[in-house]
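Repro case for the chain-ordering regression, as requested:
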Amino acid sequence: MSADVELSDVSVTFGSFYAAKNVNVKVNGGEFFSFLGPSGCGKTTLLRAISGFQEPSEGKVLIDNKDMSGIGPNKRPTALIFQNLALFPLMSVSENIAFSLEVRGVSKEERKKRADELLELIALEGQGEKKVHQLSGGQKQRVAIARALAVEPKVLLLDEPLSALDLKLRQRMRTELREIQKRVNITFIYITHDQGEALTMSDRIAVMNEGELEQIGKCDEVYNNPLTPFVATFVGENNPLYGKVTGIKGDKAQIETADGQYLAMMNETKKLNIGDESIAFVRPESLFIPRDDDSFDNKIDVNIESFEFEGNLKNFYARLQSGAKIKFSVPNAIDTSSISSGSSIALGFDSSKSVILPKASLAID
Amino acid sequence: MNNFLFTQPFFKKNGKAVAVYFLVAIIFWFVFLVIIPQFYMLDLSFRTNVPPLARGGPEDYYTFEHYSHFIFGSKTATDAFNFVDLGVFGRTIFVSMLVTIANLLFCYPIAFYIAKIANPSTARLLIVSLIIPFWINELLRSFALRILFANEGVINNFLTGIGILDQGILFITYDIGLYTGLIYAYILLMMFPLYNAIESLDINQIEAAKDLGSSSFRTHWRIVIPHAKPGIVSGCTMVFMLTVGALATPVVLSSPNTLWFPQLIYQWFNMNDNWSRGSAYSIILLIVSVIFVLSMMRIFKVRIGEIIK
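-- result from build under test --
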């Protein structure tokens, strides 16, 4: 059983500070939905509003179209997985998992049966008698999930539960979480500042900044068609090219910068006019060193400054004539021995792989 | 020998001056403040009560008479047992137990409120209000309570004054004043271990329990109290031990018809000039209290290491 979750004009204020402001979002039943944003953007506040630990100052939280105001966290069809998991250290793994059943007065045998089922779901059969501290980080994660699922929630809320894990484990847990979600088929609402996590697991994501929603959409949609300069630079990496609009050709706009003119895609909802201050964005992986048979409709002259080896990618940091910085990435398989620091080269990029947006502040790294 | 001592790792690690200071302080404390007085009293409790000049003489010998006096009474008594002293002792242990429980019940909500609910400035204010009355000596605090609880005291005068009562309640006669005084006397020793224990509980634990559907009562029962158990036992141990051994509060606040066991000990030492019997009574109180506390720890499955933590 999964449920829709709807936030309708939700604002949460602390004194005069808006932790969340006029948030409107509808999460569909059975969806894996992520709130993505930098720390302090209000995403945890929203999660607490959904779980019932924080009453919205304005607006409503609806779960299955039912207004949740005045309903405490223990009465909502949600279960929350805390950032630090908050497993009960004095209880065994099984007791942890069956705690929600215990508080409902379920008999001991029934509890044991259910705990065993959930242990099987998280691949920890026979480990119910262990204490929490005897488990590894990944096992603890899974116990926290099982404990939350024991409530049979309609919505599972996850507050950056993977942030304490090391990289490999985090990557594995992403896949596992996704699989568990498909198996139990309930709504997952996930909070993270890690765009990789959000993109790999979610059906849709909502990008937040300073308490407000910047964009809601499918992962590739948000990545390829950011609606604001903040989203363009927070989700993945992007090179900004500042300038003024000098021409419009269908769904593309021409931007005049200090270093030349480029063509980029306009967003349907963010139409531009000639003379508008704007920013064109091009991602590091969309900048290419042109070969003879390549034909890019944008060319850009750069001066290589430094180089960084990431493994699968080689990153080059360069400057334009105006002094603006630019980064481009080349797959490791491509031979770049001819490029060295100090050399000047021409890069190319396709206007369809670049977006142009009205000028606004970027995400500060 | 000298060189051998100073080459020990302890001396190398701390430096000579600090190491010597540590050693002297620890040895002084352990030998002069713990070992010698206790052993002296233990020794005295098994000796006949003779004037100082007769010490070492033929009348000074080892005997169980003080212990047997506690149980069976004086040799000339007609009763089979020393019902008076045993009664005082039993009552002291029993009432101390109730006082400890009452103290715990009283402190738990306050400690929880300060540790987990109150905002920092309120918490500070509350802690200060708890501490400030204890800048005054225990004896004076007892007198203050006496003024409140006396038959013609503040409370009775107020209640009769506004017409709620026709005549005052006999707080002192029924030992209500004594119990209140005993609960209040060592309240900080319950409050602070409890506060420290609860304070160290991750608030997410409480929220997680709540999120999983737990009622407030059950969250306390299953999460907060098990976590705070070492603090609870530590507070209970200290309060119980000190209450059992309280003297000033009972002297000021107990009704004229009842005695607190330390008052009995005091009488043997000071009024009856029988230090041996006083020592024996002290040893009895000490041993029974220790056994009591250890058995409580056994029952509640707490180890001594957890308490000191």
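Ordering looks correct now. Chain B touches chain A through 17 residues (CB under 8 Å).
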